[in-house]
Write a structure and sequence with these properties.
The chain has 81 residues and is an alpha/beta fold. It has two helices and three strands. It is globular and about 35 Å long.
Length: 81
């Protein structure tokens, strides 16, 4: 059993400090759900050195232990984002 098992965290942060904190909470067992803006995704996906999968090394480090979802507002819920 992990220290934060059973705890759910919504990661709404957009740059370094917030996402890093959520990553650490995930390391301790919390379920971390990263909310990203539609179309562009989180800005950390484009910060730093690109990899073969299209994401950067910074993103791959900060996105570990997270489930990523895109926020779709009620106005866009019926359409594509």
């Amino acid at each position: 059993m992990s220290a934060l098992e059973g705890i759910r965290v919504l990661d709404l942060g957009t740059f370094i400090a917030g996402p890093h904190c959520a990553t650490i909470l995930g390391e301790f067992g919390a379920e971390v759900i990263k909310i990203e803006p539609p179309k562009t995704g989180d800005s950390l996906r484009r910060l730093g050195t690109n990899t073969g999968c299209g994401d950067t090394l910074v993103w791959l480090s900060e996105a570990r232990n997270k489930k990523c979802v895109t926020w779709i507002s009620g106005a866009n819920a019926a359409g594509n984002c």
